[in-house]
Design a protein that fits this description.
The chain is globular and about 45 Å long. Helices cover 67% and strands 0% of the residues. It has 217 residues and is mainly α.
Length: 217
Amino acid sequence: MKNLIFVVFLLLFTHQAYANRTQDLQDLEARVHHIESIWLNNHQVPKDNPKRKNIFLKLTEDITDVVLSFPKHAEPLILKSAILLTMAEDASNFLSLGLVKEAKKLLLKAIDINPEANHGAALVTLGVLYYKVPSWPISFKDEDEAEFYLSKALAVNPAGIDSNYYYADFLIDQGKEKQALPYLNKAINVKIDPNHPDFMIQQREQHKAKLALSNLR
């Protein structure tokens, strides 16, 4: 499990604007955004920093409270899955597997509630996990399931940087480089979100590197 490349660090978690927000929805939005900001600001803390584990344990507790307070909303479930996947990178192989499986359950639940939440982030993440994790009996790798969820993510967000990039990455993983090219190019040419310029520029450079390494030009 140690060498998995988790989509979690590349997903676009944007500050959601809820239409006709009630006070409860404003509270949900504020709490999710606060926890999300702490997560994004700390995911690059060195793994040997003793504070890192405590930071993410506290974030897990905080987002669990939000999940329990707003059981009919997908956004807290998606964010909790992202935090668990962050923790999985640091854990032993056995613990990492458990965290990934728990994240999978949260993502499936989020999709049942609202597959379009966070621009289809749960669909993208689940699709990536299905082709990045090891095969049974170690884990749940399944290329058919991966294609199913990544295709659904594209249907939800056809112009998204993540939905296009990870569908392309999946196709390359399957040896379908030529089919991947239009999706990879679309990911590279997505308009930069002014709310996350540095994050998206970093993504774009990583995707360009993938294009170069794949000999798809």
